[in-house]
Specification:
Blueprint: H1 3-10, E1 17-21, E2 27-28, H2 30-39, H3 56-64, E3 69-77, H4 84-88, H5 91-107, E4 113-115, E5 149-150, H6 152-157, E6 168-176
Antiparallel strand pairs: 1-3, 2-5, 3-6, 4-6
Bound molecules: iron/sulfur cluster.
Length: about 180
């Protein structure tokens, strides 16, 4: 894939940051999965979340099977970040940008494996609840945390800002290729 061409096109998108990282740099942490299991209401309710995505080890194996990873981030300002509905309302815009970047990469010959935000919301009721396979596996992106990935260390190592104040939401996607 021609990175220069991709970067020219990324510059046209409303990304706050993007960076290419080596998947080996990512931290896969069982503690993140523990939080999914014990604190997230979506656990077991979506193919985009654990345990539907597989074990952290299998997720890690899948991610490390790629040589590269493009990390992208968008930010959105909300009136009150503790208002979960207001915060989540900013998510579709990030998902749309993620899909745009995925499409650009495909046009340049890559076949990205995409991790994005929260649980998949494509179907009103996820097929996993009826014991059926995912209806749109090619469109569905598991969330970053579902794979046990802690992005904070890699952001810190690179000096990338990810907290911008009390009421700014930061969304991150990872596109492995
Ligand atoms: S595409 Fe539908 S079936 Fe697949 S994970 Fe998303 S909501 Fe569930």
């Amino acid at each position: 894939m021609n990175r220069e061409l991709l970067e020219e096109q990324l510059a046209e998108l409303p990304l706050y940051i993007y960076d290419f990282i080596d998947p080996q740099e990512l931290e896969f942490n069982g503690r993140i999965r523990w939080i999914c299991e014990h604190e997230c209401p979506m656990y077991g309710k979506s193919w985009a979340c654990p345990p539907g995505v597989g074990s952290v080890e299998s997720c890690r194996g899948k991610c490390l099977g790629f040589e590269n990873c493009l990390m992208i981030s968008t930010i959105a300002e909300v009136a009150d970040i503790t208002d979960i509905n207001e915060t989540l309302a900013t998510r579709p815009e990030h998902e749309a940008v993620t899909n745009q970047v995925g499409e650009l990469m495909r046009q340049l010959g890559a076949e990205p494996y995409i991790l994005s935000t929260e649980a998949c919301a494509i179907c009103e009721r996820c097929a996993i609840l009826d014991g059926e396979p995912c209806r749109f596996p090619e469109r569905m992106h598991p969330c970053v945390e579902s794979h046990g990935i802690n992005v904070v260390p890699v952001l810190e190592e690179r000096g990338l800002e990810f907290q911008f104040g009390a009421n700014v939401v930061t969304w991150i996607s990872l596109l492995f290729f």
